[in-house]
Amino acid sequence: MFFPTLIVISLLAFIISINAPGDPVERMITVAAGDGISAQSKNQLEQTKYWRKKLGLDLPVFYFSVKPLSEPNLVSLIYDERAQESVQRLSRITGNPDQTALLHVALTKLAAEGFKLTSNIPDSSFSKITFVLTNLLNSISKDQIENNLGQLKHLTQVQGNSKVEFANAFTKAQQALNKWSENTTRYKNYIPVIQFHPQNQYHRWIFGDGNWLTANGAVHSKGIVRGDFGISYQTRQPVSEVILQKAGWSMFFALASVLLAYLVSIPIGVWAGARKDSKFDRSTSVSLFILYSMPSFWVATLLLMTFANPDVLHWFPASGIKPVSGYTAEANIIEKLLISLPYLILPLICYTYSSFAFLSRAMRVAVLETMTQDYIRTAMAKGLSFRTVVFKHAFRNSLLPLITVFANIFPLALGGSVILETIFTIPGMGYETVQSIQNQNYPMIVAIFTITGLLTMTGYLVSDILYAFADPRITFTNKR
Predict the structure, then answer these.
(1) For the chain, which terminal residue's Cβ has fewer other Cβ atoms within 10 angstroms, N or C?
(2) What residues contact 326, with CB distance under 8 A and at least 6 apart?
(3) How many other CB atoms are found less than 10 A from the CB of residue 10?
(4) Is residue 285 a contact partner of residue 301, using CB atoms and an 8 Å limit?
(5) CA of residue 41 relative to chain centroid, distance
(6) How far apart are CA 207 and CA 217, in angstroms?
(7) pTM of the entire structure?
(8) CATH number of the structural domain 239-470
(9) Which residues contact 170 (CB under 8 A, 6 or more apart)?
């Protein structure tokens, strides 16, 4: 089920990415042009075409699509989503795909000639003409097209900048509009047609825009199978580079917290299981469950108010993972770790304490069950010491629950802790996730979702393999 599950994860991630609110092209286009015009830059069309091609939005969505016979084939080639919707709605009005396509081509040529007229006119007139041209390409009815054509004719006559090319394009647009409205075949709206698209957005997202196997010829994307998750809307950096920069601290805290939790919980759980109902068993159970009941964000806030407060005890820094001035140039890894150590103590406490109760109780239950087995009684009857029986014979056969818990370290190593990294301002993936949600940086969110799913499946796979090492009775063959 590993590979089918990965396919499902990739499909879910892709569906989220294409249905995310907002137009990614608008996020990538420069907000302000060099001449100070913000809403409509004079090279906006060129930028839009460039970014739609770079992001792969000029391709069909999936390997196949079902559309009415009345919809023109050129819809998938239109670079603007609103213009696509315009063509689709116009095609449903008349049901004639050929005439709808000719009308769109005529309006597009007219818009191109209209933008040429704006090269030597004041910015105020430029904005008006550009606004009308944009509305013309996004019109969804005959009345809207006629209204925009009328406004465009009035504005160009007032400016006195009409040229022969523009006049010819205007005449052809009017003729195309008349033919479109006269030739109707609405029955085609009710005839479904299946179209196959070997090159599509999902295929490009998975395998890139080059050779799907070798990635030769890739220009803008190599695909998520090669670690290319696209471009961050916020920084315009490759998402994979941002993840590599941020995942280090999340991985450090995940590994360190799990290691500390195991070092503390395993001895407690083993000894509590071996000494059932003793004072040690009861006292540790009560203490650990009290810790488990306290939310991590509350404990983090309490620790900061107590041990990082100049008015109480200023023992530790309140945020960050290193001094504001950074590390010295000649500092090695050990020296950097010692410099960062005061910043790591409070976060590590919050990462670790909640795992004590869960891991120790899981270990206790496993040891209790193991201690009732016949081979334990045999070992006790042979005269082995109680400590030897517990830690040599019972311990190994009680590891299966802990192996299951160990599988969670893989997604935690990437995803980090959203709450704790935000409270302590740790520059990890949890904090980056919050920033991505606030800034609607959907490529980063989808990448985290996809990689977390992959690491979760990897964790389960590793756990299954470790089961066989921990318990010889578990095998992956068909032996009877």
Answers:
(1) C
(2) none
(3) 18
(4) no
(5) 30
(6) 12
(7) 0.74
(8) 1.10.3720.10
(9) 110, 113, 149, 152, 153
